[in-house]
Design a protein that fits this description.
The protein is 46% helix and 15% strand. It is α/β, with parallel strands linked by helices and 357 residues long. The strands form three sheets. Strands 1-2-3-4-7-8-9-12 form an eight-stranded parallel beta barrel, surrounded by five helices. Strands 5-6 form a two-stranded antiparallel ribbon. Helix 1 runs parallel beside helix 12, helix 2 packs parallel to helix 3 and helix 11 crosses helix 12.
């Protein structure tokens, strides 16, 4: 509790919104809407935004803007917001991304970051003619990718003779003004171990208190084994704040009742192989129900649904367990981001101050 909890939002640079449902979602995947949202978010307590990416149309997300270019556009439209671009090893070379990142860092005065996605969507890789690696191999590649990125950004001459990437006396100039933060996701044993060894931040899918405690313990153990400070912990959550709990619960029920069943089931079939392919059957979406998958990163599970007071209390309870950042999605972004900043965030800060005292 020594530092206030931080907040990020999922950039809706994808058509269809953040739930796979026919319920009205007053959001838009276009740039003008997102530029206004980014300014609104940084003025309502958000420190980070995450630009998501799929490279091919699928599962209710037919239209998407590419994450790195979109992130840079949002950085240039804001003053304080840090924007995290999702990138996939296997589709990016670390040297090329390092060059882009250094330029974005200069243009934004140190506000560019990356989220390294090890890869869950097999159809995307095969459609692009790229090999689809076994689950733990994808994380081994991602770890090598992060190692290369950090070396390029911080060292004058990078040498790497890896299994996936080879760099020979590679020099990057100019270096970033501030070494970009490196985020990663993944719930599997391999993901947790990798986070402890190399990442600055670990993103979890939506989890209850027990699930968060388990993951944080695993990551801290992994970091301790290599003599490293544990990465910070980010938790996904879909936030439904209303003046009454009944209103919030009714909204959740309507979202699920109007779910696009075909799209949700198609997404579930594609992603559940990620956890099922691990030796211990532990991983992303492995135990997700249909209702969980309507918000495609299990955001309902975090339980940020209710009145501002109820949500603030739950956020601070997660903070006490070790959650450093909440990555939030909303149904109606402009209105609800502003509602969060005016109604929820002040209560969170008040509770944090009480805990500190």
């Amino acid at each position: 509790m020594s530092e206030p909890v931080k907040f990020a939002y999922w950039v809706p640079n994808v058509s269809g919104g953040l739930v796979t449902s026919s319920i009205e979602q007053r959001t838009d995947w276009g740039y003008d809407y997102n530029r206004e949202l980014a300014v609104l978010a940084e003025n309502n307590g958000f420190e980070y935004a995450l630009s998501q990416v799929r490279y091919m149309a699928s599962y209710g997300a037919e239209f998407q803007h590419e994450s790195t270019s979109f992130s840079l556009a949002l950085l240039l439209a804001t003053e304080r917001l840090k924007v995290i671009a999702a990138v996939h090893p296997g589709l990016w070379h670390p040297g090329v991304l390092a060059k882009l990142g250094a330029t974005a860092d200069h243009l934004s005065n140190g506000r560019f970051a990356v989220n390294v996605v090890s890869g869950w969507f097999k159809g995307e890789f095969t459609a692009l003619g790229e090999p689809w690696l076994e689950h733990d191999e994808r994380y081994r590649r991602a770890e090598e990718f992060i190692t290369a990125l950090r070396s390029i950004w911080t060292e004058d001459h990078t040498e790497l003779a890896g299994d996936f990437y080879r760099l020979r006396d590679f020099t990057l100039k100019p270096k970033p003004l501030h070494t970009p933060e490196i985020f990663q996701g993944g719930n599997s044993t391999a993901a947790r171990a990798m986070a402890g060894r190399v990442s600055d931040w670990y993103f979890s899918n939506g989890k209850d208190f027990e699930g968060v405690t388990e993951q944080i313990d695993d990551i801290r153990k992994s970091a301790a084994q290599v003599g490293r400070t544990a990465p910070k912990f980010g938790l996904n959550g879909f936030l439904i704040a209303r003046d009454t709990e009944a209103e919030a619960r009714d909204t959740l029920r309507e979202i699920v009742a109007k779910a696009d069943r075909e799209a949700v089931e198609g997404f579930g079939a594609a992603v559940k192989q990620a956890g099922q392919s691990t030796a211990d059957k532990k991983g992303m979406w492995q135990d997700s129900t249909f209702d969980d998958l309507v918000q495609y990163n299990d955001g309902f599970r975090t339980g940020l649904i209710g009145t501002p007071e109820q949500i603030a209390e739950r956020i601070v309870a997660y903070r006490k367990l070790g959650v450093d950042l909440f990555l939030l999605g909303f149904l109606h972004y402009h209105e609800e981001v502003e509602y969060f900043g005016k109604k929820v965030l002040p209560l969170v800060r008040e509770l944090e101050a009480q805990q500190t005292a």
